Amino acid sequence: MMDIKGIKELNIEDSIKDSYLDYAMSVIVGRALPDVRDGLKPVHRRTLYAMDEMGVYYNKAYKKSARIVGDVIGKYHPHGDSAVYDTLVRMAQDFSLRYPLVDGQGNFGSIDGDSPAAMRYTEVRLAKISDELLSDLDKNTVDFAENYDGSLSEPTVFPTRIPNLLVNGTSGIAVGMATNIPPHNLTETIDAIVHMIDNPEYTESEIFEIIKGPDFPTAGMILGQEDIYKAYRTGRGSITIRAKTHIEETKSGKEKIIVDELPYQVNKAMLIEKIAELVRDKKIVGISDLRDESDRDGIRVVIELKKDVMPDVMLNQLYKFTQLQNTFGINMVALVDGRPQTLNLIRILDEFIGHRVTVVTRRTQYLLDKAEARLHILEGLIKAVENIDEVIALIKSSRDSAEAKIKLKENYGFSDLQAQSILDMRLHRLTGLEIEKLRDEHERTLKDIEYYRSILGNRGVLMGVIKDELQEVKDKYGDERRTDIVPQTGEFNIEDLIPDDETVVTITHNGYIKRTLLSSFTAQKRGGKGKSGAKSKGDDFAERLIVTSNHARLFFFTNTGKIHFLRVYELPEMARDAKGRHISNVLTLEKEEYLASVIALADTEDEKYLFMATKFGVVKKTLVGDFKSGRSGMIALKLREGDEIVTSDVTTDDDNIFLATRNGKTIQFSSQEVRKMGRTATGVRGITLEEKDEVVSMEVLTGHPYILSVTAGGYGKCSLVSDYRLQTRGGKGVKLCRVSPKTGLVCGAKQVNLEDEVMLITRSGKIIRLAVGEIPVMGRDTQGVKLMSTDEYEIIAFAVVKEENEDDSSED
Questions:
Q1: Poorest-confidence range of 106-115, 245-254, 421-430, 551-560?
Q2: pLDDT digits (tens, 9 = 90+) for 81-97
Q3: For the segment 59-77, what is each residue's pLDDT rounded down to a tens digit?
Q4: Which residues contact 715 (CB under 8 A, 6 or more apart)?
Q5: SS (HEC) of 86-149
Q6: Entry pTM
């Protein structure tokens, strides 16, 4: 292999690794992460410094943004002009920074996401509070470094008097890391720092009592204190932020929700568009009008509600589906001595105090050196004035200033600096008044030197200076907290507003759903025609009937094996003869997805099992708690091709499972025979089916003595549970009842007491309520008795109702 002069062989893997690490560190240190001391990234620092150099102060005239951007790019930050202008714009937006650092004139964008005007149109100057970041920059308080081409120098950090990293926050994405620090209230932050200075033995909880949490420029609310404390302790966490709203009543008696404040960084226009989209897609029902009435005085988004819509229920839906409630992820990463670190709240405050100690120490040393130099000159001038005649004669006799300087040094012992100051002194300084001023200045300088030395020699005095300056900043710029913090105990709970009444949930074949108070139905005699419970439309009919309570959790199982969640009170409440509202207005279902089973569960049943059965005879047992944190639409049971979920219930290992088939077969087996499975498991065989048979119902036996079976033709009977022997899971089962063309196929079988009541529902929507005690107890191999005159209509569902002790004398 021929060697070529000047070419060096490199391992490509090592070369790429080194290059990427160099790039990553360049982004981390030079672009994306703030310095813990002043809370600024390089582009922010360079922009403010360029404005300071130009003299664009808060009390001076505005200058075009384009001129500022040009100076920043040309002198300190050789990157894109749009990046620099975006930085300038953000520092001027009062909805982005809690305490804006730039005072802008013109269009700097809006909370609706509107873009700012071009930089040639807008004008800026430094905000007054920026003086506190730049204060003492000329007193050797911080180090300077060469700019990108070595022609100028720029500060590596600002000698800030405000804890800018916390009060304004920051966000940035580097390589392999990111930062997201929320803004805080200046008054609280300074009070915490002062407390740390005054009480070296402070505790973490004392600081947390002072800094209550983030304070966003757009106000709003933070839900829960514990999440804030967790983020403050570790430097990482997330908090839930929510819009602030109130309820108003219209002249017509309807209610409307008024949004007064938004969560931080939420685009108001996009939020309104999202709400409109949800209403259009019928995912949220009950909003009649939506408009933005915001003006220069503040935000006002009006959401008008339809009649009888509960504002609190609607708010809960809006919090769930829109950014009226949002999550802010806290990741407090900043540069400490040039290295990125995750910092907790105490560490950030401590680093700022350390920075102020360094700044005040360096400033004091600078002022001391300057005062001592001035004292030296004053001592020379005073000595010269006291011997003015001889000094003047000496100067007059000298050939030139160089000779005069030498003579002054030799004859009077003046230093070179003192001799030059005497030669530079004007004649008016020889008047009596000026001589007195020299002596006064000498006295003041002596006192200043003593003060500076006390600061440098006594840490207590030094910390007192820092504290006084912080108090001054607080007095100038401190304000009240904007963001409210709502404790977890005070978090809104919709269930507190809704009575836990017994309720009937009705679902039609075409997917219309409603809830109706159970008291709307009264008991009737066996064989009656029933009351109208739901209006049918075309070929639609009531298909499912669930008796539950308002606070229960509804689990909706679909034909595809998915599960959706709702509270009963979230369903529309309607009269018993109302059609209901389509399920697509309540749940988000896919195109070919429809409801297969619905069950109601109490919050106390998480440690029990959810037992599912399919029409192919497959069963599955999963902990209820496994679904508690799940999202709507997740897989509940992985189905084989062609199979569907029939029903579900809750069970324990002490229960027995009772399956009934369409052709009148049944099997009873122990729940222990089915092992606990995960959410996506397929399940195991519960019953072996004969040809053209399928499972129609499942019961978890809980000690009731009877099984009530009902057929489509309106026949029914009660049988003793003991008539059905316990078998092994997967068998063919035994006879449930005699099935014939007269009786029709089996609708289902449920366990009952004789004191219970049963509600039957036909395909036409007629409902009848019967006492189970009126239904005879018969053997397994019987067809039962006529329970309801069905005419041409078939019974398609029934539910068991507990005794309500109602007066059944009323009739419609």
A1: 421-430
A2: 999 999 999 999 999 99
A3: 999 999 999 999 999 999 9
A4: 742, 743, 744, 783, 784, 785, 786, 787
A5: HHHHHCCCCCCCCCCCEEEECCCCCCCCCCCCCCCCCEEEECCCHHHHHCCCCCCCCCEEECCC
A6: 0.65
Measured CA to CA, the distance from residue 238 to residue 260 in angstroms comes to: 23
Question: Tokens 């009126």 correspond to what residue?
Answer: 774
Mean pLDDT of the chain: 86
Q: How far is CA 393 from CA 420, 437, 519, in A?
A: 16, 24, 120
CATH of region 498-801, choose from 2.120.10.90, 1.10.1200.10, 3.40.50.920, 3.20.20.10: 2.120.10.90
Interstrand relation of 244-249 and 665-670 (parallel, antiparallel or unpaired): unpaired
Query: Which amino acid belongs to residue 13?
Result: E
Encoded tokens for 484: 């409210």
Rg of the chain taking only CA atoms, in angstroms: 41
Phi, psi of 453 (to 5 degrees): -65, -30
Which of 510, 511, 542 is closest to 797 using CA atoms?
542
Measured CA to CA, the distance from residue 740 to residue 756 in angstroms comes to: 27
Two domains, one topology: 41-131+144-156 and 498-801: no
The strand pair at 757-762 and 766-771 is best described as antiparallel
Kindly tell me if the per-residue pLDDT of 192 is higher than 90: yes
Contact 524, 769 (CB under 8 A): yes
pLDDT confidence of residue 216 = 96
Q: What are the residue boundaries of the structural domains of the chain, listed by start? A: 41-131+144-156, 244-323, 498-801
The yes or no reply on domain 244-323 and CATH 3.30.1360.40 is yes
Q: How far apart are the first and last CA of the chain?
A: 106
Instruction: Give me the helices (H) in 281-413, please.
Output: 311-321, 345-386, 388-397, 401-412
How far apart are alpha carbons 411 and 390 in whole angstroms? 10
**Which strand ranges, in their side-by-side order, compose the sheet holding 301-305?**
244-249, 255-261, 301-305, 287-292
3-state secondary structure of 229: helix
The catalytic site residues sit at: 121
Cβ within 8 Å of residue 454, ≥6 positions away = 461
Q: Are 562 and 593 in contact (CB under 8 A)?
A: yes
Give the SS3 label for residue 614. strand
Assigned superfamily of 41-131+144-156: Topoisomerase II, domain 5 (3.90.199.10)
Q: For residue 426, name the pLDDT band (cuts at 50, 70, 90).
A: confident
